[in-house]
């Protein structure tokens, strides 16, 4: 069980320390760090992405996340800006004028201009978990669907956009879900059926290519992994490690269920999507939707249910202590959205708001 691999991709925004506005320095940062494979360009020039190496335990993953955040933050400081982990830039952005140069990005702009303008600057945290085969990965996806909402509720971190409170804990999620493929993954019998569905979506123009299939959980088009993409960029590394640990435990639990022949529980796509919207709206601070029944539920109870569901996998990986500690810390400090909203309500001006978020981004208390 300890050999189940995981890795994390994190997307960040770059903000001006004197105004809080987005800074188009992403390509400059990547050039400054030429030779570092863990730092990459993103869709918009005010973004940058980091990608950890493959890890097998949460301690190593946490150290890798801290290293990459520090590396990118130091480069950002050299470019005169701040590295900030937020699901959306909190203040002014230049829209499609900030598009990163490249043929694929130009094609995306031509085909999906309105969606790209709205969601192109959204920042997520993507967790990759190794699976033995693509057929097994497809069966895992079917079992992940009802648990995506509590993962989003834990990681919500984008309540502020355009300089105002959006009333969403994750305004990134509704913006991102406007993409035509950004809905709960289906239930397919095998990888061939999954591939047929992907080709059909691409053929209809719903996606440019396999990389543009934006299911909140999918088979990675690049790696032998299940890739869970539902989370906002996590405000600090502790939340990112919590997300990664729970995601790996969900995948391990799904694999064990497949091997035992455990029946797949009913969770219709409409209920899964309703649960995701409720999580994006309220995070852990309000009502939820139970994806197994479609009825109203409590967000924190949904997280408790998730923990109970994956507890054997957490135990087998030696992750119980780490996950328990990080959940306790989350209860004490609140989600990223709670912390952003409290700071915004305090009247912090944009420069101070950006600086506080930048400090939290480099916090590594785990």
Q: How would you sum up this structure, described in words?
A:
The chain is of the alpha+beta class and 366 residues long. The protein has 13 helices and 11 strands. It has helices at residues 26-32, 58-78, 103-119, 134-144, 148-155, 172-176, 191-203, 237-260, 269-282, 299-317, 320-333, 336-345, 350-361, and strands spanning 6-15, 39-41, 47-51, 82-84, 124-130, 160-161, 164-165, 217-219, 225-232, 287-289, 296-298. Strands 1, 2, 3, 4, 5, 8 and 9 form a 7-stranded antiparallel sheet that branches. Strand 6 (160-161) and strand 7 (164-165) form a beta hairpin. Helix 4 packs across helix 8 (237-260). The radius of gyration is 19 Å and the shape is globular. The two termini are 23 Å apart.
Q: What is the topological layout?
A:
Elements: E1 6-15, H1 26-32, E2 39-41, E3 47-51, H2 58-78, E4 82-84, H3 103-119, E5 124-130, H4 134-144, H5 148-155, E6 160-161, E7 164-165, H6 172-176, H7 191-203, E8 217-219, E9 225-232, H8 237-260, H9 269-282, E10 287-289, E11 296-298, H10 299-317, H11 320-333, H12 336-345, H13 350-361
Antiparallel strand pairs: 1-3, 1-4, 1-5, 2-3, 5-9, 6-7, 8-9, 10-11
Helix pairs in contact: 2-8, 4-8, 5-9, 5-10, 8-10, 8-11
| Secondary structure tally, helices | 13
User: What is the β-strand count?
Assistant: 11
Low-confidence stretches: none
What does the radius of gyration come to?
19 Å
Helix-strand makeup class: alpha+beta
Task: Report the sheet with the most strands, covering strand number, pairing sense and barrel closure.
Answer: 7 strands, antiparallel
Distance N to C terminus:
23 Å
What is the mean pLDDT?
96
What fraction strand? 5-15%
- Shape category: globular
- What's the helical proportion of residues? 40-55%
Encode the helix/strand succession as letters: EHEEHEHEHHEEHHEEHHEEHHHH
């Amino acid at each position: 069980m300890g050999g189940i691999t995981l890795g994390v991709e994190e997307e960040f925004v770059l903000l001006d320390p004197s105004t809080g506005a987005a800074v188009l320095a992403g390509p400059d940062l990547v050039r400054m760090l030429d030779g570092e494979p863990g730092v990459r360009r993103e869709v918009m020039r005010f973004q940058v992405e980091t990608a950890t190496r493959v890890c097998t335990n949460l301690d190593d993953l946490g150290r890798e996340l801290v290293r990459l955040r520090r590396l990118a933050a130091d480069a950002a400081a050299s470019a005169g800006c701040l590295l900030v982990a937020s699901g959306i830039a909190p203040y002014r952005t230049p829209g499609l004028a900030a598009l990163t140069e490249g043929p694929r990005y130009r094609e995306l702009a031509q085909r999906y201009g309105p969606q790209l303008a709205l969601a192109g600057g959204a920042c997520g945290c993507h967790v990759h978990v190794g699976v033995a085969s693509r057929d097994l990965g497809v069966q895992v996806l079917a079992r992940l669907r009802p648990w995506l909402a509590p993962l989003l509720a834990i990681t919500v971190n984008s309540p502020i956009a355009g300089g105002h409170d959006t009333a969403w804990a994750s305004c990134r999620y509704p913006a991102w879900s406007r993409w035509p493929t950004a809905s709960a993954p289906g239930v397919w019998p095998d990888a061939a059926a999954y591939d047929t569905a992907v080709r059909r979506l691409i053929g209809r123009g719903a996606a440019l290519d396999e990389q543009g299939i934006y299911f909140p959980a999918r088979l990675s088009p690049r790696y032998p992994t299940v890739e869970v993409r539902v989370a906002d960029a996590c405000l600090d590394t502790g939340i990112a490690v919590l997300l990664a640990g729970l995601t790996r435990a969900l995948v391990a639990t799904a694999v064990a269920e497949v091997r035992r022949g455990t029946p797949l529980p009913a969770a219709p796509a409409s209920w899964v999507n309703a649960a995701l919207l409720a999580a994006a709206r309220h995070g852990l601070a309000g009502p939820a939707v139970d994806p197994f029944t479609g009825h109203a539920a409590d967000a924190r109870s949904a997280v408790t249910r998730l923990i109970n569901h994956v507890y054997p996998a957490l135990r087998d990986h030696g992750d119980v202590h780490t996950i328990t500690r990080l959940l306790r810390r989350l209860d004490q400090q609140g989600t990223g959205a709670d912390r952003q909203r409290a700071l915004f309500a305090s009247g912090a001006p944009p420069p101070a708001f950006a600086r506080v978020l930048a400090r939290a981004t480099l916090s590594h208390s785990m």
